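sorry for the late reply, my laptop died twice this morning and i had to redo everyting from scratch. anyway the thing you sent over, i finally got around to it. pasting the sequence first so we're on the same page, its 243 residues, then the predicted structure underneath. double check i copied it right bc i was rushing
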Amino acid sequence: MTETSWRTHRLELDDQSLREWDATVLASGEDGIVLDRSAFYPGGGGQPPDHGVLLWGGVQTRIAGARKGDDLYLLAADGDPVPPPGTAVRGAIEDDRRTALMRTHSGLHVLCGVVYRDYGSLVTGGNMEPFSARMDFDLPQLPDGFRDAVQAACNAEIEAGRRIDVRVLPRDDAFAIPDIIRTATNLVPPEVKEVRIVDIVGLDQQADGGTHVASTAQIGRIEVVKIENKGKGFRRLRIRIAD
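ok and here's the structure:
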């Protein structure tokens, strides 16, 4: 089953600023809780899932994560009560964590755009936590001054306040955009017929399913804290997002 056939309407894909909403429980059990509407990002593309709560009947259920399967399952914290099917709930995302991850994810796209533009290198992997992340590149040669140059270029793009737009295109239209896949391997499954595009206008445009801030000016400052040699010409850049 593809994400488009999940019963849960993914609110965070339409409105990345949404933090609270009303929903109804469609199913609950050992697999998790399925809602008809949810703004919990379930994780993917290196971005971890959101945390938050469901409020129902004077009860609070902490949501410690989510799992993708034949539906989108929210995972209750150990020992917390689980609302039965048919229950009306109020969902709420942990704002500090989500906002930090949005800033970090957008920061990684700035890094990806700068390294691709200036050095022609594709991404081979990545991962993030709030305000810290890594991105791996196919970069056989490391030019002198690379770290300082990349850091300065990233922060110049942040200071430029570039708009970050999100749109969904039919698969053929999306893949007609030059360089829309910035990873060495195309990670968009063939069954996905509509592709979500995140566009840092004038810098970076790529297929992506995560959550992002609306402008590079909201990211903060990027610090390249370490560069590691991963062998066979692969380099790992570790970054930190600072206020």
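Residues 32 and 75 are 5 Å apart (CA to CA).
thats about all i looked at so far, will dig more tmrw
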